[in-house]
Amino acid sequence: xxxxxxxxxxxxxxxxxxxxxxxxxxxxxxxxxxxxxxxxxxxxxxxxxxxxxxxxxxxxxxxxxxxxxxxxxxx
Length: 75
Prior knowledge:
This protein starts with 12 loop residues before the first helix and ends in a 9-residue tail after the last helix. Helix 1 runs antiparallel to helix 2. It has one domain (12-70): Exonuclease VII, small subunit (Helix Hairpins). The chain is built from 2 helices and no strands. It is 67% helix and 0% strand.
């Protein structure tokens, strides 16, 4: 498995999810060495954290944008 990658901070949510899917597939195939598996797992954890941060940011932006809406528009 090629573990060269962009820094997590440079990836979009979609890019992070795509890379995470590749890592999961590689780990499930079981063809990686122990060291490769550990590196892939570490990268996966980093990507999951990136995805969570991006989703938290999006949620905050939505809350800001909808915070001033009248009640009848919030439904």
